[in-house]
Amino acid sequence: MTGMDHPVSAVAGSGAPRRGGLGTLPSFRWVAIAVILVGWFVYYPIVDNFVVSTTNQDIYTGEIEYVGLDNYARLLDDPVVWISLRNNLLYAAISVVFQVFAAFLLAAVIEGLESERSRRFWRAVYFVPSAISITVTGLLFYFIYQPRIGLLDAGLSALGLGALSRPWLGSEDTAIYAIIAMSQWQGFGYSTLLFGLAIQKIPRELYDAAIMDGAGPLRRLWNVTFPMTREMTGLMIIVTITGAFQVFNEVMVMTAGGPNNSSQVLGTWLYQQGFIQNEFGYGAAIAAVIFLVTLVTGMAQLWYTRHRRVQL
Amino acid sequence: MKRSSHVVAVAAASALALSAGPGSAREAVVADPNAKVEYSGTLSILTKFGLQQLSPYFVNVAKEYEKLHPGVKIELIQESDDSVKGKTKTLVASNSLPDIYFSWTGSWGENFVRGNRAVDLTKVVGPDTPWGKTLSPAAVKAFEYNGKLYGIPLYLDAKFMGYNKPAFEKAGVGVPATFEKLLEACDALRKGGTTPISLGNKEAWPAVHYAGQLLAYNVPTATLERDFDPARAKFDDPGYVASLAQFKALVDRCTDGAAVNGTSYASSLQAFSNADSAMYYQEIIEFDQAASADTKLKGADFGFFRLPPPAAAKGDVKAIEGAPEGYMINTASKKIPLAIDFMKFVTAPENARVLSAPPYGQPSAAIDGASEATMNPAVVAGLKDIASASYLMPWLDTANTPRVAAAWLSSLQALVGGTMTPEAVMAEVKKASAADAKRK
User: Fold this and answer.
1) Interface touch B19/A261, C-beta < 8 Å
2) In chain B, which residues have their Cβ closer than 8 Å to the Cβ of A43?
């Protein structure tokens, strides 16, 4: 008997299967709707995207030309793809530093505070930016980065560092860093909150034992807190890296990928190709790259986490 | 193994079948002037009037039409100048274009014609038809493709340099007659502590608008029009590089320089309205936003002039950059006669005059759609300038193919930022055009 043949009642162990009605439905039928929905809305678009990426489509005329892997070959010769990939990697690397490791340290500090009121206060302080919509945050930072009159340049001038002022979003050298900085400001508190929850679940006895063994705060952080939050750390690394490869709104709101494509990321370049330049096949090839990068990252990290899991 | 291969094959086949997303070829549809109008059902329309100031226009017209025809419901999809581009393409890709939709002229509109998505309106809006006689012939002709008319022009648009009269007086400068004099005026204004021109180029098209007008002055019209077509384009006229060098000089001497790439065009319009800058290069349809009773810059202090041509210009110095903007009717619409009837109502003189007057300030393409008594005098004067122009230079980003337009947009940002020379910009444009020609 295969799993598909199990009557639901038998699986549930509620006595003899009833004849007629829902009780006789094979378990597959119970999940069939969910399987169809997931297949149709999640897996079919993925397959379809790969199919579209082997074509050149004209959305106006409906003409479809099958071009095999030409769009993938074109990716290699497109300098903006490499700029975008570099920007996504920068986004991922900087985000992992701030939203995983720095957030972990901050969470450890906050959860180490004696007073529950203080802990609640600091959690809230760091979480507030995450509650603001990305579009609003983008506009807020657009004004902060405004040349001369923006908060950043005004602050630098007030500190006697006016020479550092520059068109943060208008310069090809700084635009992507300005966007990444904004993203850290927004995402940092959310990661801190999640790490805080993971730290709260660590049994108190482990810390007590470590203290009895003479371990100081740093030793406890390294030998207790860090290993006991490894799963959360792994999860946060996956979420952060995949998030960095799916970034779109921040860039669109602040620079739209400019100036001169210097702040393009794969997501915005995909949009530019598909919806502005009418190159849907090529856009689908870019989407396939994003999918593969995030899939490989996620699988690698899951594998690593599973093999390094700490069992209590 | 065999079973799983079969499943994959079925999935792939189904994906292939469904990925014919854009749909099969469509038949051309010709509007019948004698078709009976059924006043019932819902009529959908995609407009470019999503901005707060403009959105009431279609809302009010729709209400009036619904009042006249109680069986009809008008469904509005209102987008802004920037968002309408993405929205339109999404609707095209999903075969969900509404009955009536906004369109620019040039290659933008041509796409709908090429895909048989725009109804041939020649028999209802042509110059000899009752409706055609009520519209500006030049505006109607701007939507002509392959000798047929596909669009209903709603308003005229062109680019002018708006200026702050008191700022000019304070700096002791007059309206410049040549491009070189404009640069000198910028120097004088800057010396007096005023930002000469506010330019926001975050969206990249504002720089393209400057370049477009300068190209019209420096490159012969026939050469420009040849170069719009990738199959024939050469981009070898020296006027191209000269125009870009002039634009770079303007950026360096008149604006905040590279910083403008990080400033939005809305912010720069705001700076001009707040009297923080002396000039702003704007469309005639923005005159009422730039100076009004609600802005620091009042209507009486607002003046405008055409971007002055360089002394050694070899192109058409009487050309103005601009084009009418209008609407097309979806060939897939089940209510084409009703859609035509609604657009006749929108362009009727009483509604056209409302459109031309503040707060909308969109100079109607209807011949009786302008009333000097109710319109902003600057808009009236601008319309006379448009009428006297020898050539309407289309927007570079809608006249060119999307790939060439993208090259103009990003390369001009680099020119503004100082990371590309005029020659390098032209090399990028040529490369994009050659790639398009190869593809076709």
Assistant:
1) no
2) 11
